[in-house]
Design goal:
homodimer; Phosphorylase Kinase, domain 1; Aminoglycoside 3'-phosphotransferase, Chain: A, domain 2; six-stranded mixed β-sheet; three-stranded antiparallel β-sheet; globular
Chain lengths: 429, 429
């Protein structure tokens, strides 16, 4: 964290940056100016934010470029009727720095964090595109599975009790507890609103009206979703990214980066892994709307399916490898398991641990799939399908599958079984 | 919390109170002086601390009495080679206040908290005795089960996600994260040291040398104990007392109070319930050493057994009743379960929840029993048995039973099954 310039100059009130004001502001920071080169009046600024919560600028100078992400005091998607704390920018910068420590080079480098302006200046990634767009366009990313497996294994393991001393972990938990309002968004939008008549819910209507209604009166489903919410509220396992979907991944054929950890907090590991797997499954089941002729995307479907299986298997293997190599935290005190009987018992315990984590993953995946179809924030994978009947066909399959992830969770004990269920769901009518 | 006098006067450095200095100090606080009556030179002070960590004084005046508990900067049991933070006194006072809010009248009232002196002045309980002493002496406490069931149900439920809004719970978690050093004592002494060759371990020797050695090389047992430790480290379910054994209960025939929550933090509910049940079981299995003739304590054994069953059953019923009546927290959002299907699904989920909590309870009980026989801090129930062979006979039964609680946890699905196992263990050779 030593190299990051943190500006804490007070006096200047927060104000949202504009294309016109940003260069002058950035010109005051040598760390930024030296990357961009030239003078501020030579810098080209364009606002590119397509997210829900923030302003995002790309600033290009003669020598280089940076990205500037500034929090807005309200939810951009909804408007200023939904205020949101600016300090999420602080948590995002803290999470980016932690991620870079745990999994070097897999998140954008932080160049400057300005608390007063709720603004992070970070590395400009080019020619990266948001992976969700690539998944819609049928683009393969050869390094996806290995990179995301490494990102998740390293960030989750190294912020867990398996790696950190208990006191250090408690210090970090306390810090991120203050990101409560961002957590609250997840608690409401992911775990609760899709299962009640919430004002901002929407879905492909009238095609899915029946399922939306059915889910709102599905007792076992609601209980299962809320059981996952309880884990989200009370399992402080590791620093989770908190929003790890394909829209938080920037990709090229040779490089994969994870962005946007403003929802970071100490929560259940399965929430990150489940979010990623859910979004791969949504990508799979939405291919029906993106192929020029039926079956044209079959090979691409197979690629997505393989990534889904591969990313879990690589993640699990890497996580256990880290545990064996660097398990110096206060959980499972290594000294107790140094003898042969101990090694065997720890190996058995690791299998139990990973089965439990897999079960959490599938439960969270189910919640994430449902909220993207019946809740407030949808995914472009489905939203870009203009033919509403076709879109709803895929969405219906995703909803049914997600319900089984939650209600019949014990059926899914391997990622291969999940993969088979995805294929079966896709082929069902 | 409004009525409590909190003294934050700086300038005066911390100094341990003595019988000689305490009256003069207390005389400066009207809230204390008005309870004691008369002048400070009329107050009688006696240091009565028999615990491991603190100074405890009883101060009596013409009109009344108070208890003064002052933290020492080291572990009293071990000496100044083991330093300990004074701010545990702050966490104790915070926990006492929270307990009194959740379960009014079941913890001593806080009269004054002085942060600089790490000192809490509280209600003097009389003619209460430490319940552990009563259990050794064969005294029955008719109100034990109902009171402890209420204390645990109310304090755990009302500090959990079932009752608190998520943001408020996160604020409290962050506060108690700073009690990390006290948590670390539990992490080491309860979950780790009994399973390794730790310097401060001791046991009835040579009688238990074989079992002490056996446990240190028992892979499945060590893995199970450390799985409970992981829950202790990462499950922020509720504000737990953190040390809820029979030595933290003061009792008369008509009144039961819970004292000494300095280990309080947001942890797994089963840790409190398990501690209590473990100590009842230790009391049961130590009766062999306290009866004048074999069988003389049979009726008392039966009473302890009934309390063990009763306190769990009452706790579980009260916890679910609170959930149904006051389940306004962010977990299991009540609105989702208001329809008949929802009510049925929530009832099924509550049964699952209580099964899981029971399983945690039994696992933690196993850890607590073992640490009291093979670890640093033992219990008077066994320590006061002068005949080492007899003592070891009971301890051996407790150790075997505790091991089965950890390694065969799935065998114990009801408290009655646990009770039967206790009786069988006691009758075994």
């Amino acid at each position: 964290m030593q190299d990051v310039r943190i500006s804490l100059t007070g006096g200047v009130d927060y104000h949202p940056m504009t294309d016109g004001s940003l260069s002058g502001y950035l010109g005051g920071f040598e760390a930024v100016a030296s990357i961009l080169g030239g003078r501020p009046d030579q810098w080209r600024v364009s606002e590119v934010g397509d997210g829900n919560l923030n302003l995002v600028f790309i600033v290009k100078g003669p020598a280089g470029a940076v990205v500037v992400k500034q929090a807005l005091p309200y939810v951009r998607l909804v408007g200023d009727s939904w205020p949101l704390p600016l300090d999420r920018s602080f948590f995002e910068s803290q999470a980016l720095l932690t991620e870079d420590e745990c999994a070097p080079g897999l998140a954008p480098k932080v160049i400057l964090f300005d608390k007063a302006q709720a603004l992070v200046v970070m590395e400009y990634l080019t020619p990266h595109v948001i992976m969700r767009k690539g998944l819609i366009d049928g683009v393969k990313y050869p390094r996806f599975a290995e990179t995301l497996a490494e990102f998740m294994a390293a960030t989750l393991f190294k912020t867990s009790d398996l790696y950190l001393p208990a006191g250090e972990k408690k210090r970090r938990i306390a810090l991120f507890c203050a990101n409560a309002e961002l957590c609250k968004i997840t608690e409401d939008l992911v775990f609760t609103d899709p299962y009640r008549d919430a004002k901002l819910n929407h879905w492909t209507s009238p095609q899915l009206d029946d399922l939306a209604l059915e889910f709102r009166s599905d007792g076992p489903l609601k209980a299962a979703a809320q059981a996952m919410k309880l884990k989200f509220l009370s399992s402080a396992e590791a620093l989770v990214h908190g929003d790890l979907h394909s829209g938080s991944i920037m990709a090229t054929a040779s490089d994969i980066r994870v962005i946007d950890p403003e929802f970071a907090f100490f929560g259940p590991m399965g929430f990150d892994v489940g979010a990623l797997i859910a979004n791969l499954i949504l990508a799979y089941l939405s291919q029906i709307g993106h192929e020029t002729t039926p079956g044209a995307r079959d090979e691409y479907r197979a690629w997505i399916l393989l990534q889904t299986v591969d990313v879990w298997n690589r993640f699990a293997a890497r996580f256990v490898a880290l545990w064996n190599a660097e398990g110096r935290g206060d959980a499972y005190t290594a000294e107790l398991f140094a003898d042969p009987a101990g090694r065997e018992a720890l190996a058995a315990e690791q299998r139990r641990y990973m089965r439990r984590l897999f079960s959490d993953t599938i439960g969270f995946a189910g919640c994430k799939m449902i909220r993207r179809i019946l809740g407030l924030a949808h995914v472009a994978d489905f939203e870009t399908i203009a033919d509403k009947d076709l879109r709803a066909k895929g969405e219906r399959k995703a909803l049914r599958l997600a319900r089984s992830f939650l209600v019949d969770r014990e059926r899914f004990v391997t990622i291969e079984a999940v993969g088979e269920a995805v294929v079966a769901a896709d082929k069902s009518n």
